[in-house]
Specification:
The structure holds two protein chains of two kinds. Chain A is α+β, with helices and mostly antiparallel strands. Chain A has two helices and five strands; from the N terminus they run E-E-H-E-H-E-E. In chain A, a hairpin with a 5-residue loop joins strand 1 and strand 2. The mean pLDDT of chain A is about 90. By secondary structure, chain B is of the alpha/beta class. Chain B has two domains: about 210 residues, FAD/NAD(P)-binding domain, CATH 3.50.50; about 120 residues, FAD/NAD(P)-binding domain (3-Layer(bba) Sandwich). In chain B, the strands form eight sheets. In chain B, strands 6-3-2-10-22 form a five-stranded parallel β-sheet, with helices on one face. In chain B, strands 1-9-8-7 form a four-stranded mixed β-sheet, with no helix packed on it. Chain B has a four-stranded parallel β-sheet with strand order 14-13-12-18. Classes of the chains: A alpha+beta, B alpha/beta. Chains A and B meet through helix 2 of A and loops of B.
Chain lengths: ~110, ~350
């Protein structure tokens, strides 16, 4: 693990946790991390490519990390999504930075 | 029965560009798409977003790219079956295929090119008990014939463009329109938001926000909705209505194509070669985001390349006896099926005194 990696735990849609070393120097977001490790089948996550225009990457943030505020677009998309609760975020809008070391998230069900 | 040379399933950028490449080979195309307009995701999801990696375009809006492609293929007179989903494929004894849509439209072609992207866009249905019981009995996810709502009490749910636009449209036709949304804010084109604002003031649209439809009831037909109001004064409303139209956007599903006997891997169609993107069924090709092969990248520009190679292979399949030499458009020009001609102007050759 280099200095630029952080530890992230992602619970997949089957409830299985995955401990991942995520790079912070590749301009990656959480949705892309899930795809890179194929933790959800292609076509079921990141459908719009990361424009906050679908909710296929919705996840629940379980750890107490302070995340950047939601943009209007993310807020609007989540207001139309299903299975939403106050822990909901769109993975594509969460950029992987050093501050997120130890982040724990759970993927929302497919079709959210 | 619609007959053509290459039947393209999916009218996104890859499918549209295939028409151009086929046209250069004097092959005719017909496209089927489940959406009511061409352009696929570009038109449906992000028409106003810029794209920066189309060769030769430092920046182009997705909607503009679609308009440009439509203009580019116009001389080749593609046919379109829009708003219908390709359902079944039947191989014929003569090597052709018959593809039938959800509405029963039949198409026949010697080559089928699946350019289906992530699949066909299906409405996202809210999670409500009994919702499906009332489908077609007051509940609809798409409005095919707005006149059906004349004189009816209509409830629309959603907070995006389609919820706004249909509320505006139906306000003229229906007896009453109620728009229910989980927030007070709506996401849509500015003029749609303003128009709804005006209609609300005039009493032609009633807004119920922040609120959510939580139950449906009725005897054989939808008669009423239960609505939970959030915010400062949480309570449940009972609302009598004739129609409920939840508009929560669309999500792509591979759909019936998955049952066509093609090799599927990771929600995509496997094409084991990058020679011509033919599938395990000869005569059926898969191009653009819908296919997968080692090294696959889901990029529009890769779809254009795949469409081009597919057309060359399709030509050989349709005319096995002909030899073909690729000609640059600068040399050969464009000869449309509509009789139009575009070609490079001839250089002036004359002496200078």
């Amino acid at each position: 693990m280099t200095m630029r990696d952080i530890q992230v735990t992602i619970i997949d849609r089957q409830g299985k946790p995955h401990q991942i070393e995520a790079p912070t120097d590749l301009n990656m977001n959480l949705m892309e991390l899930v795809r890179a490790y194929e933790l959800a089948p292609e076509g079921t996550i990141g459908v719009c490519g990361g424009m906050a225009m679908c909710a296929s990457c919705q996840c629940y943030v379980l750890s107490p990390h302070q995340l950047p505020d939601k943009s209007d677009e993310e807020e609007a998309m989540l207001s139309e999504a299903f299975f939403v609760n106050d822990k909901s975020r769109l993975g594509c809008q969460i950029h992987l930075t050093d501050k997120l070391n130890g982040l724990q998230v759970e993927l929302a069900p497919e079709g959210s | 029965m619609i007959k053509t040379d290459i039947l393209i399933i999916g009218a996104g950028p890859t499918g549209l560009f295939a028409v151009f490449e086929a046209g250069l080979l004097q092959l005719r195309c017909h496209l089927i798409d489940a959406l009511p307009q061409p352009g696929g995701q570009l038109a449906e999801i992000y028409p106003k977003k810029p794209i920066y990696d189309i060769p030769g375009f430092p920046e182009v809006l997705a909607g503009e790219l679609v308009d440009n492609l439509m203009e580019q293929i116009r001389p080749f007179q593609p046919g379109f079956t829009l708003g219908e989903r390709a359902e079944t494929i039947e191989p014929q004894e003569d090597g052709t295929f018959i593809v039938t849509t959800s509405e029963g439209t039949r198409h026949k072609a010697p080559v089928v090119a699946i350019a289906g992207g992530l699949g066909s866009f299906e409405p996202r249905k809210p999670l409500l008990d009994n919702l499906e019981t009332y489908e077609g009995k007051g509940v609809a996810y798409m409005i095919r014939n707005p006149e059906e709502y004349a004189g009816k009490k209509v409830v629309i749910a959603g907070g995006g463009d389609s919820a706004l636009d249909w509320s505006i449209y139906l306000a003229e036709i229906a007896e009453s329109v109620i728009l229910v949304h989980r927030r007070n804010e709506f996401r849509g084109a500015l003029d749609s938001v303003e128009k709804v604002q005006q209609l609300k003031r005039k009493g032609q649209i009633q807004l119920v926000t922040p609120a959510e439809v939580v139950s449906l009831s009725g005897n054989g037909r939808l008669e009423a909705l239960g609505i939970r109001m959030a915010g400062e004064d949480p309570r449940e409303l009972h609302l009598e209505t004739d129609a409920f139209i939840p508009l929560f956007g669309l999500s792509p599903k591979l759909g019936p194509i998955a049952e066509w006997g093609l090799e599927i891997e990771k929600n995509a169609i496997r094409v084991d070669n990058t020679l011509d993107y033919q599938t395990n069924i000869p005569g059926i090709y898969a191009i653009g985001d819908v296919n997968t092969y080692p090294g696959k990248l889901k990029l529009i520009l890769c779809g254009f390349h795949e469409a081009t190679l597919m057309c060359q292979s399709a030509y050989q399949r349709i005319y096995p006896e002909r030899r073909y030499v690729m000609k640059y458009t600068t040399v050969g020009g464009i000869h449309g099926f509509d009789g139009s001609k575009r070609e490079a102007p001839k250089a002036v050759v004359k002496p200078i005194d």
